[in-house]
Amino acid sequence: MKILAPGTEHTSIRNRYLRADYSTWQPGQECEVHSHDDAAEVFVFLSGECEITVEGETRVVSAGCTVYVGPGEKHKLKVPGNRPMEMFLAVMPNHEPTHTFYRADGTPYHRNRQAP
Q1: Domain tally for the chain?
Q2: Fewer CB within 10 Å: C terminus or N terminus of the chain?
Q3: Measured in whole angstroms, how far is the alpha carbon of residue 49 from the centre of its chain?
Q4: Alpha-carbon span 68 to 81, nearest angstrom
Q5: Would residue 90 be called left, alpha or beta, if left means φ above 0 and alpha means ψ between -120 and 50 degrees?
Q6: The domain that contains 102 carries what CATH number?
Q7: How far apart are CA 20 and CA 42, in angstroms?
Q8: Is 96 helix (H, G, I), strand (E, B) or coil?
Q9: Which strands form 19-25's sheet, in the order they lie side by side?
């Protein structure tokens, strides 16, 4: 058993089955559009708000919401407003390459994202 808790030394797990982390993002922080080949991702929002775009559909979600992103679905997150956003995320299964990113012309390329 491994217990994860925000604000402790055990905030993430990485093995071949799962990559999961607690994370705090600051206002304005965002990530590149990406997807995960043959892996699903679940976001559980704990505080603040997140502007999340999945396959071109954008929504602002707040604490208490959970978002599922299926394998291969392009997605992007951004923190709107002036409050930090806290979340727990899990990608299942965890394999390399961890991410597929997209160039301006839409061409995909693969890259591993480093552990926090």
Answers
A1: 1
A2: N
A3: 14
A4: 23
A5: beta
A6: 2.60.120.10
A7: 9
A8: coil
A9: 12-14, 19-25, 85-92, 40-47, 66-69
Separation between Cα atoms, residue 73 and residue 67, nearest integer Å: 12
Distance CA 62, CA 51 (A): 9
Look up residue 43 and give its two tokens: 């976001």
In a domain, 70, yes or no: yes
What average pLDDT does the segment 96-103 reach?
A: 94
DSSP-derived 3-state class of residue 65:
coil
Q: Is 36 in contact with 47 (CB distance < 8 Å)?
A: no
74: tokens are: 């392009």
The answer to whether the beta carbons of residues 101 and 32 sit under 8 Å apart is: yes
pLDDT band at 115 (very low <50, low <70, confident <90, very high): low
Q: 10 Å Cβ neighbour count for 28?
A: 10
